[in-house]
Structure formats: structure tokens, C-alpha cells
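Session log. Operator J.P. requested a structure for one protein chain; no other inputs attached. Running the standard single-chain path with C-alpha cell output.
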Amino acid sequence: MAAIANLLLLFKKGDHLVVTEDLYGGTYRLFEQVFSQYDLSFTYVDTSDIEAVRTAIRPETKALFVESLTNPLLKVADIPALALICRERGLLCIVDNTFLTPYLLKPFDLGADITVYSATKYLAGHNDTVSGLVVVKDPLLAERVYFLQNSVGAVLGPQDSWLTIRGMKTLSVRLDRQQENALKIARWLEGHPNVRKVCYPGLETHSGHAILKRDAKGFGAMIAFEVSEHALVEQILLKTRLISFAESLGGVETLVTFPEVQTHADIQPEIRKRLGINDVLLRLSVGIEDAEDLIADLDQAFAG
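Structure written below.
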């Protein structure tokens, strides 16, 4: 959040940003409850819909802020197409690439200007530090971002920096295993009688599968799924033994969250309902444990 807040200092009173609609709830809270009082405005659209993005741009629009893979519904952004619109309209293209990481997707190669990461997640990878990163393509713009960072003081401490660097050394190894596990679990969930919907871009049925197959080295290790009734949500959260009920993601341990009341509680109920962040949606951050153990844990939790 410090990294994103630092980026917003690039803009001035009256500026407007087009933003991914089903984004991390903390980002939404920062935009709507903090920076809106400084007369920045935000329009939220489905950034997997190119025409919706184009339509949302106004004369005062200065940037597009997009999650490459959205949280929690895992919609896929076509970064090359969005970056082209930004170039045509003179906008900054900012990509939150937390879910895919630079190992799987390189937004700069696809036309983005700035990437931002919650390095707390996959980059550090061990749930033992809190860290944010901003990466800027243009050297002059990078100097502006550095000036703001230095001026405001949103600077990572040395121990947290070391933990993040240490974690990045094993990023590829961890993600390879996590993706392998995620695909096995997603396919198992697809076949479960008490699961009515599975969102995982590694599945051929996912609407963004072809885009990531073209642009990325993989599909990530996040899964969102809807169970058949609300009672199963509490049952799964309380009865899983290997999988922890916790709000973070991207670490070596598998975690499950309930977005409606945890990560996205700050988004208005009517907006959550329209987006599909409902009372039967769960989100899995798949870790490096044995996939069969994870599936067995889910199976026994479903069984009650």
C-alpha cells in the first residue's frame, strides 16, 4: 500500500484514473477513502474488456491502473492492448503484477510504464515480511518516483529488504511447484459436486487462458471457487487442517480466505454483489505442499 500511495503522488488535484473494478480491497480503500479527498477521481471498469476501458477514459484521465490478474476473481488483462490505448491517449500504464510476478509475466515487455508488487506475497514468499515494490521503465519518471519516495519516507528497512531479496532467489522454484499444485486442485474442484464455479486461468475453459498462454510463462497459483451453499464456507474454513484460514497469499503455505468479509469488506455490498464477490466465494493461495495432501484436506473439509 505504501508503494501504491507513493505512485499516486505523481498525480495532482483533478486528475482521473481508470482502474480494475475487481481489485484488491485495500487498494480500493486507499483510492476511495484516502486519495479521493485530495480530489483524485477513479472509474472502475472490467479491464478484461478493452472497449470498457476505452469508454471510461476522460479528458482529465492520466493513467490506467490494472491488475494483470485480478483479486479475487482472476480476470486476465490484455496488457499489450491496454498499453496501446495508453500510448494513444497519453496515459501512464500501471500494472499491479503481484499475482503473476515478474517470473511469469513481464509487463514492461508488453508496453507497461510502471509495475507495482506487494512483495510481501510471492516475491518474499515466506509470510515473514511486509514489503512493496515499484519498478519504473523510463529513467526520468523513475527519478520522479524516487524523489517522492525519499520525500515521503516510504522506504523499506534493511531487514525487510534482505528478506525480500532472499525470497526472490527461490521464486521460480516455488512458483513452478505452486502452479503444478494449483492446476491439480483446480481440476479436482471442477469435478466436485459441491463446487459450482472454479476460476483458475490455467484451465482451458477460463476466459483469459489464451491471453496468458500468449503473454506469460504460466498461470499463477491463485484459485477462486464458489461452493454450492453458504454453510459450506464456514465448514471449509474451520475444518481444513493442512490449509490455514488466513488473509495473505503467495507464501509456501496454502491459505484459504473468504473475500466478502476479509480482503474485500471495504467494497460496498452492492458492488461486491455485482462483481460476484459473494457469500459462497472462497480464494485459495496454493503453496508447495504435496498436492494430494491438499486435495485430501479439502475433501475431508467438504465432507464435514
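Operator note: The domain at 2-168 is CATH 3.40.640.10 (Aspartate Aminotransferase; domain 2).
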